[in-house]
Design brief:
The complex is a heterodimer of chains A (about 260) and B (about 260). Chain A is of the alpha+beta class and about 260 residues long. Chain A has 2 domains: about 10-50; about 55-255, Alpha-Beta Plaits. Chain A has helices at about 10-45, 75-80, 145-150, 175-180, 200-205, 210-215, 230-240; strands spanning about 60-65, 95-100, 105-110, 130-135, 155, 160-165, 185, 190-195, 220-225, 240, 255. The longest helix of chain A has about 35 residues, at about 10-45. Chain B is an all-alpha fold. Chain B has 10 helices and no strands. Chain B has helices spanning about 1-10, 20-50, 60-70, 85-95, 100-105, 110-115, 130-135, 180-190, 195-200, 220-230. The model of chain B has no long low-confidence stretch (mean pLDDT about 90). Classes of the chains: A alpha+beta (about 260), B mainly alpha (about 260). The interface of A and B includes residues 68 and 153 of A.
Chain lengths: ~260, ~260
């Protein structure tokens, strides 16, 4: 260890020297500081809202089966918002009607996804119970569709939404087959896989998905899973929650309340 | 001899081979070159083949997410309407349709908010639209207001009597069946068809005005049903009788017999 270097100057000289240096630095720093402040102010003016940070969110949806009236407004809104092909068989979300007969046998139908309501269905055997179930991509935390994609064109974002990379999808349909919920389809115009995005373009702007926006009875709830003050957290706190096909360990993030055992 | 052979093997030389430092250096050099070529090829391939924004946020292209984020918004959200239509929004927010967003009936409004005069929004005025929610369907949850579109004031558009922004009926309903159609239909084909609703339910008049705040009551005791069905009840002879003491004494009557269709088939 070397000896501490002593200042050979007189004490008074030392102090005045450092003060001079300090003042000099200050005179240089002041305009820089002002410039910095101005730049920050300009920036704050240009972008009053903080940029969207995906890491601060983790989204899920709640569906209260007991509130769904089967009006199909969510299907209509989804097709409008996301430019989903209008013809039947292409849905990002759809509504199913379950009719359980006296012997416990369930009949399920979804005429055109329920977009124009449900025509009355006379049942010969009688009805034990009947209800509507809205369906959509479950945005699995462990998504099988992501695992099977041979080109890595489908992926889960940091905020927990499973998306499709439209520039890299080769339209091989593996993901359509792998999805246990039938939530994916091949867009007939682009020949690429398409699916519910939780209306990602709306969510990053602070809006709720279109289906949640238009649901007239509040059967759909959207929010942050981790944030305790979100509507979804309240939904999962006060309801008995079930997910679809939990035995597949896909860990869905669409949570159903009042779900019947016949629903798969 | 054995020891010498062992040391030779340990040095990586064959028994009849001499250790040559030049040869070893040459080998090392060629190995290094091969390794460098391989690594360089991999790095080059990775640079040219891997998408530019891949791996920035995860195992995917960040640009793909950005492209999805840039999609246009079509549904403006209910908050957007209040700025220009405060009276309607105010009225609507106090009425029973308060949970129904404007865009449910008027369609996507983002284009309208940008150019209000050029992009007018439609308002459904036909009789076919309201039954999407309010037409009777047994699959709908009990208690949701439903009418039979065939029987309910046929041919009149709904908006002649109901203001969609404040859809309370223009006059209080005369019959219970106006709102409780499902029960009325069930009861109409049952043995209880001739009983009035008010026989079993005390219904305050206010229930017709604020149906959710003031509710009719329901029978609470076995003795209420016994009023007609007990052995000693003073009621017409053809009414089936049971012994209140022994017949299913653990249960309340409606746990087995649905009162609106009591046959129990």
């Amino acid at each position: 260890m070397g000896e501490w270097k002593r200042d050979a100057r007189e004490p008074s000289e030392q102090i005045s020297g450092s003060r001079r240096e300090f003042l000099h630095t200050c005179s240089l720093a002041a305009p820089l500081l002002l410039l910095g402040l101005r730049a920050a102010a300009v920036e704050a003016w240009a972008a009053p809202e903080a940029a969207y940070n995906a890491r601060e969110h983790y989204y899920g949806m709640g569906v209260d089966v007991a509130r769904c009236i089967g009006c199909g407004r969510c299907v209509e809104a989804c097709k409008n918002e996301n430019d989903v092909p209008r013809e039947p068989y292409y849905f990002r979300t759809w509504v199913e009607r379950y009719v359980v007969g006296p012997a416990g046998e369930a009949e399920v139908d979804s005429p055109n996804g329920g977009i124009a309501g449900f025509p009355p269905k006379p049942s010969e055997k009688g009805v034990l119970r009947t209800f509507f179930v809205p369906k959509l991509c479950n945005q699995c935390a462990d998504p099988p569709c992501v695992q099977v994609c041979p080109v890595g064109a489908t992926f889960a974002t940091e905020d927990g939404v499973v998306l499709v990379d439209r520039d890299y999808c080769i339209g091989c349909r593996y993901c359509v087959q792998a999805c246990p919920y039938g939530a994916r389809f091949l867009d007939p115009r682009t020949h690429m896989a398409d699916k519910c995005t939780f209306c990602y373009h709306r969510v990053v702007r602070g809006l709720v998905p279109a289906c949640v926006e238009v649901c007239p009875t509040g059967a759909r709830v959207f929010g942050d899973i981790r944030q305790r003050s979100s509507p979804l957290a309240r939904f999962t706190r006060f309801n008995k929650i079930m997910t679809l096909k939990p035995h597949l360990n896909t860990k869905p993030k669409v949570f159903y309340a009042a779900l019947d055992q016949e629903v798969r | 001899m054995e020891r010498a052979r062992g040391s030779q093997l340990a040095s990586g030389l064959l028994p009849n081979q001499q250790f040559d430092p030049h040869l070893m250096l040459q080998q090392l050099k060629s190995l290094l070159i091969a390794f460098a070529v391989l690594a360089g090829g991999l790095a080059l391939g990775r640079h040219f083949l891997m998408p530019k924004t891949f791996g920035q946020r995860g195992h995917y292209r960040a640009a793909a997410v950005d492209a999805i984020e840039k999609q246009p918004v079509h549904y403006a959200g209910r908050e957007a309407c209040a700025a220009c239509h405060p009276e309607i929004v105010d009225r609507h927010s106090k009425a029973r349709h308060q949970t129904v967003a404007c865009e449910v009936c008027h369609g996507p409004a983002a284009a309208h908010t940008e150019a209000p005069t050029e992009n007018k929004l439609p308002a459904p005025r036909t009789r076919g639209y309201c039954p999407l929610c309010h037409g009777y369907d047994p699959s709908r949850p009990t208690g949701f207001p439903q009418i039979d579109p065939v029987a309910h004031n046929p041919l009149k558009p709904c908006i002649t009597c109901h203001n969609p922004h404040q859809p309370e009926p223009p006059h209080v309903p005369e019959e219970c069946s106006a709102c409780h159609g499902e029960i009325a239909r069930t009861k109409a084909v049952s043995r209880h068809a001739l009983l009035a609703f008010t026989q079993c339910h005390n219904t305050p008049l206010q229930h017709k005005v604020t149906p959710r705040l003031v509710r009719p009551d329901k029978p609470r005791t076995r003795e209420f049903c016994g009023g007609c069905h007990a052995q000693d009840a003073r009621s017409p002879k053809e009414i089936p009788r049971i012994d209140l003491q022994t017949h299913g004494s653990r249960y309340l009557c409606w746990q087995c017999h649905y009162p609106h269709r009591p046959e129990g088939d």
